[in-house]
Design brief:
about 450 residues, Growth Hormone, Chain: A, about 0% strand
């Protein structure tokens, strides 16, 4: 924009012959195109790096805690019900803070908000092991989860804006990195804690380093608020007009049945995911599995998302209806929960694999957010609504599992609850997978 203003002032102050000469010289000045292309390519690569590093940081705060939950409970004197509350904090924070993301993005730009989100994650993870008792631990966790919440909402928006023709592949890359971060935290936290001296506080705080690294790629985008892709910025620098914002009827997202179906699907898959991340190691440990092996089993569950998170979004974008994928993932979840009830230790690796496949409903839900809206504004509203409402739906699940576990003294009732919730998840996913967009429903 500054380049355009300077050019206009120069032409106004120049005499007519000089202006004509300047205009004749313009084609020669516009010739050096390769540097501009190189700059756009560098910017795009930096954005991809930022997306990947952000995704790596969106789950270690949760899965690292799951791997050390027993030690944290003992260290802070938590009961089973309070531990259940602790595992319910992530979806609650995602629901509460997620609604702030669209407004913050409009004011500061998506890149600035994600950059601040990574800083909040780093600060929260560094403070929470040393914040005192349970209340301080919860408050510092909430700070980290606030950063995760706004980044969760804005990732589909950034992908849609920067890579509109590669939603499936970029969502797959983002989801793959997210699964890698999730599984790495589950697998590495226990041995890393032992290597750092055996204190659970040090083991949890160490994950702040990864969040600090993730701040760096976003810094160049903060200055221009990350509002435009390289092509849009190039058109303005070249003297072209910025694309006009499309005006249309107000989008009332709550009127869309597809948006509600997607929110319910998102909420129920999040319920299963956070129960798994918070309680699965404890299920195996109660069955006699050593703590280190229980952490590895959770890592296996999460690492299934690495290859499948890349395959499923690409497959979903090629199908007119995503219902069959939803059904297959749901059946895997039912088989996994049944196996955990019948033979938790003997078939531990098989159940971990099946539940890992079922948890790939998350990248599918993110892909459907991008597919079920026609415009960028529609994606912002649908992403905020589906994720915030969905995470609100998921809040009671981990807490209820903790209460059932404490009062029943076993895992029969909690696992029955998890299996029962899989049925409405399949139904909502089939409805959300129909080939339609919210703009056609939400303006009626």
């Amino acid at each position: 924009m500054m380049g355009v203003m300077v050019s206009e002032e120069t032409l106004t102050a120049t005499s007519t012959p000089e202006r004509a000469a300047s205009e004749r010289a313009t084609p020669r000045r516009a010739a050096p195109e390769p540097p501009a292309r190189g700059s756009r390519a560098w910017t795009t690569r930096l954005m991809i790096l930022g997306i990947v590093l952000t995704a790596l940081n969106l789950r270690p705060a949760i899965t690292s805690l799951g791997a050390l939950l027993e030690e944290v409970r003992d260290g802070l004197g938590m009961s089973g019900s309070v531990a259940g509350l602790l595992t319910s904090v992530p979806p609650l924070c995602f629901a509460v803070f997620g609604v702030m993301a669209p407004r913050l993005a409009r004011r500061f730009g998506p890149a600035a908000v994600v950059c601040a989100g990574m800083a909040a994650i780093a600060t929260g993870l560094l403070l929470r092991p040393y914040a005192g008792g349970t209340a301080g631990f919860l408050a510092a966790s909430a700070l980290a989860l606030m950063g995760i919440a706004v980044s969760n909402i804005l990732m589909p928006v950034i992908v849609k804006r920067w890579f509109p023709d590669r939603i499936g592949s970029m969502t797959g890359l983002y989801s793959m990195a997210l699964a890698l971060g999730t599984s790495s935290a589950a697998a590495v936290t226990v041995p890393m804690t032992e290597a750092l001296g055996g204190s659970w506080r040090t083991g949890l705080a160490a994950w702040a380093v990864l969040a600090v690294v993730a701040v760096v790629p976003w810094l160049p985008f903060v200055r221009d608020r990350g509002a435009r892709s390289p092509e849009q910025r190039g058109s303005v620098r070249g003297g072209g007009r910025a694309p006009a914002r499309a005006e249309g009827p107000a989008l009332r997202i709550t009127r869309s049945r597809t948006a509600w179906a997607l929110a319910v699907f998102f909420g129920l898959q999040a319920t299963a995911a956070y129960i798994t991340m918070g309680w699965m190691p404890q299920i195996f440990r109660d069955a006699g599995v050593p703590a280190g092996t229980a952490g590895l089993l959770l890592a296996v569950t999460m690492v299934m998302g690495v290859p499948l998170a890349f395959v499923i979004p690409r497959l979903a974008t090629r199908l007119p209806h995503q219902g069959p994928i939803v059904a297959v993932l749901g059946v895997c979840g039912l088989l996994g929960y049944g196996g955990l009830h019948l033979a938790p230790a003997d078939g531990a690796w098989a159940w971990a694999l099946l539940i890992g496949i079922a948890n790939c409903s998350f990248p599918l839900a993110l892909t459907m957010v991008g597919m079920r809206a026609r415009t960028g504004a529609g994606v912002v509203k649908l992403s905020a609504f589906a994720q915030s409402t969905g995470y609100l739906i998921s809040v009671p699940g981990p807490l209820l599992v903790g209460v059932l576990y404490q009062h029943s003294g076993g895992w029969g009732l909690p696992l029955a609850l998890m299996a029962a919730l899989m049925l409405p998840q399949i139904a909502a996913g089939v409805l959300a997978g129909r080939d339609r967009v919210v703009e056609d429903e939400a303006v009626r």
